[in-house]
Design a protein that fits this description.
Layout (H helix, E strand, L loop, with lengths): L31 H21 L9 H9 L10 H11 L12 E2 L8 H13 L10 H18 L6 E5 L2 H21 L3 H4 L8 E6 L5 H8 L7 E4 L9 H13 L3 E8 L11 H10 L3 E6 L23 E5 H4 L7 E5 L42 H10 L2 H23 L4 E3 L7 E6 L8 H15 L3 E7 L2 E7 L7 H21 L1
Parallel strand pairs: 1-11, 3-4, 3-5, 5-6, 6-7
Antiparallel strand pairs: 2-8, 7-8, 9-10, 10-12, 11-12
């Protein structure tokens, strides 16, 4: 390995450094030129992505995409950044889904705000880890302040606490973990962290609505309770948890000899964008001594708006809350949080390591965020994205975006509801509309028609919609998540859907 050697002509104050060419790819104090070149070329591809995309997807088939990637020989490095970024452009950027276009109306993927993208540059390059203060001094207190701010928006006191997570599923896992362990400690005097599951853990029951997120089932399995611990509660006409059915479900499980420990309420269901009646559910939880976790991964956007904030009334009564900033706060993935009403409950998951967060350390004086994390030691400084967003844009502007989305969704729902070609299942608190094309003599064929429509739209790349099944029937789904999307955009998409339905009927 070559190195730069000092000789008689080397200035006395010159630092002995390794060969510049060999180490030019490492981000270090002498690599500014190399870094600037790479970032500029990457920025050019992003600019082209914005300028050249007229539809949300290229329509490339999986076999063709696989062949492109499989054709790359990873044993042969590329000669320069231009070649590298050209390859990435061909394999990824040209076929990436353009969430920022109004014709993308499928899943819970929001367009992102530019202050957060500026933060991403700093986060990736500086590469702080958020586990301990000595790895991220400013980052530690920025994250803590944003957790405090979010807790305040929820309606919690200064006794609350939390941590940024990788996503809603992880936050929901933390909610159920604390529910399980708190119940065992408080009511059974059993420490699961030290002694494992108690003998009667197979009887533990967690209550969720029929439309709750699938992560509840996976998390119950991960926690050793099995999916059998999940009790599905019936819903009302807008697919929100029915409090009367919840009370009956709890009583029924007790009669069976099972042990209710928690309720997960949903603030913004994935399929319908509706909020469970949180205040009523909280009352039931309190009467039955059950932990209440609110999955507000989607509905957290309502915290931003004065106009629609009332839809979350009761969330302040929950023991824990899931927040996904990368859904409803217009943040790049990933940016999420888990918040607890009582910060002492986070002690349940604390574990000390002598090299990282020793037991004798004063954590009021020298904080360590790792004390609040369950599965992430090394953790990105994702909080900086939200910090830059709030400091540059402010909560009010984000709330106006949320207002616009909700109001556009309501206009779209009214339009679909009055169009005889469509059947709308229900209106939405937020922005998810489930509907199907129904103009045809053969009702038994509606599923086939709508499946055809979705596939044709996807592989044309012209419009991307989602789908779901309700009572075994196939439906299309709009997820309106872009404040730039207008009612005219919705009408245009509906007309394209009708055209594809007509094509299906001609072919069949």
């Amino acid at each position: 390995m070559d190195t730069t050697l000092m000789n008689d002509k080397t200035p006395k104050d010159k630092v002995l450094i390794p060969n510049q060419d060999f180490y030019k790819d490492i981000f270090h104090q002498h690599a500014n030129e190399e870094y600037t070149q790479a970032i500029q070329l990457a920025q050019d591809r992003v600019s082209n992505f914005l300028k050249n995309n007229s539809k949300p997807f290229s329509g490339i088939r999986p076999d063709d995409m696989k062949a492109k990637v499989e054709g790359v020989d990873l044993k042969i490095p590329l000669p320069d950044y231009e070649s590298l970024l050209n390859e990435v452009d061909e394999l990824y950027v040209k076929h990436a889904t353009a969430y920022h276009l109004p014709e993308y109306i499928a899943h819970l993927n929001c367009p992102v705000v530019i202050p957060a993208l500026a933060a991403e540059v700093l986060i990736s390059a500086i590469n702080s880890s958020q586990d301990t203060y000595d790895q991220s001094a400013g980052g530690t207190f920025i994250e803590r302040k944003l957790i405090d701010w979010t807790s305040e928006q929820i309606g919690y006191t200064d006794n609350a606490d939390g941590i940024f997570t990788a996503g809603g599923s992880q936050s929901n896992l933390m909610g159920l973990l604390l529910a399980r362990d708190y119940f065992s400690l408080e009511y059974q005097k059993w420490n699961i962290k030290l002694d494992g599951l108690p003998p009667d853990a197979s009887k533990f029951r967690i209550f969720v609505s029929d439309k709750a997120h699938f992560s509840n089932h996976k998390n119950a399995w991960i926690l050793g309770l099995g999916e059998q611990s999940i009790v599905h509660v019936g819903v009302d006409s807008r697919y929100r948890m029915d409090p009367e059915q919840l009370e009956k479900a709890i009583a029924k499980e007790i009669e069976k000899g099972n042990i209710p420990i928690a309720i997960t309420a949903t603030a913004g269901t994935t399929d319908f964008g509706n909020v469970d009646p949180l205040h009523k559910i909280a009352s039931i939880a309190k009467r039955n001594n059950l932990w209440l976790h609110v999955d507000a991964a989607y509905g957290c956007g309502l915290l931003l708006t004065e106009k629609y904030r009332h839809l979350l009334t009761g969330i302040e009564l929950a023991d824990s809350v899931t927040i996904d900033y990368h859904k409803s706060f217009f943040q790049p993935i990933s940016s999420s949080a888990f918040i607890v009403k009582n910060k002492l409950h986070l002690n349940i998951i604390k574990h000390h390591a002598d090299y990282l967060n020793p037991k004798e350390q004063n954590y009021e004086e020298l904080p360590a965020q790792i004390n609040k994390s369950i599965i992430q030691s090394t953790r990105r400084f994702d909080a900086l994205k939200l910090w830059c967003t709030l400091r540059y844009m402010g909560k009010e502007k984000l709330g106006q975006y949320t207002d616009t989305i909700i109001e556009t969704a309501e206009k779209a729902a009214n339009h679909i509801d009055t169009d005889q070609d469509f059947e709308l299942l229900c209106h939405s608190d937020m922005g998810v509309l489930v509907f199907r094309y129904i103009n045809g003599p053969d009702q038994a064929n509606y599923c086939n028609i709508n499946q055809y429509i979705k596939e044709k739209l996807f592989f044309s790349g012209e419009v991307l919609v989602a789908s779901t099944k309700v009572d075994g029937q196939f439906y299309l789904k709009f997820t309106i998540f872009n404040p730039l999307t207008t009612l005219d955009d919705i009408k245009h998409i509906l007309n394209i859907i009708k055209q594809n339905a007509n094509d299906y009927q001609r072919l069949n």
